[in-house]
Amino acid sequence: MMLNSDTMELDLPLAQSEAESGFSDCGGGAGPDGAGPGGPRGGPARGLEAAEPGRKDLQHLSREERRRRRRATAKYRTAHATRERIRVEAFNLAFAELRKLLPTLPPDKKLSKIEILRLAICYISYLNHVLDV
């Protein structure tokens, strides 16, 4: 973390006691599990923003606006594109597996996804009919 004049006032020495830091008055001291004000991981308490230099302009924004700005970063878009690619590949693989189970003439006929689903419904109902007879 980089220090500048804004954050130097917030930094406290590690050896400072709870009474000296002011946490005893406002309930920000250690909780029942012995963790600091942010819980066992030591981060900021839930609902509070971290006091970082680049974050001050984001604190006044709504949750939706912060989410929109976070999603506009190149790192987020790249990660999202990767997750979407993996999801689409799994989706297409599932359709290919279902397609292998369906009888058609010719057997290698290319079917759209909706055709695969409709054919699967018809084939399942046909198999139910065969079992009932």
TrEMBL record:
PROSITE patterns: BHLH. Residues 25-45 have a biased composition (Gly residues). The keyword Protein transport does not apply. Keywords: Developmental protein, Differentiation, DNA-binding, Nucleus, Transcription, Transcription regulation. This is Nescient helix-loop-helix 1. Residues 52-65 have a biased composition (Basic and acidic residues). Residues 66-79 have a biased composition (Basic residues). GO terms for molecular function: DNA-binding transcription activator activity, RNA polymerase II-specific; protein dimerization activity; RNA polymerase II cis-regulatory region sequence-specific DNA binding. Residues 1-79 are annotated as: Disordered. It comes from the Eukaryota.
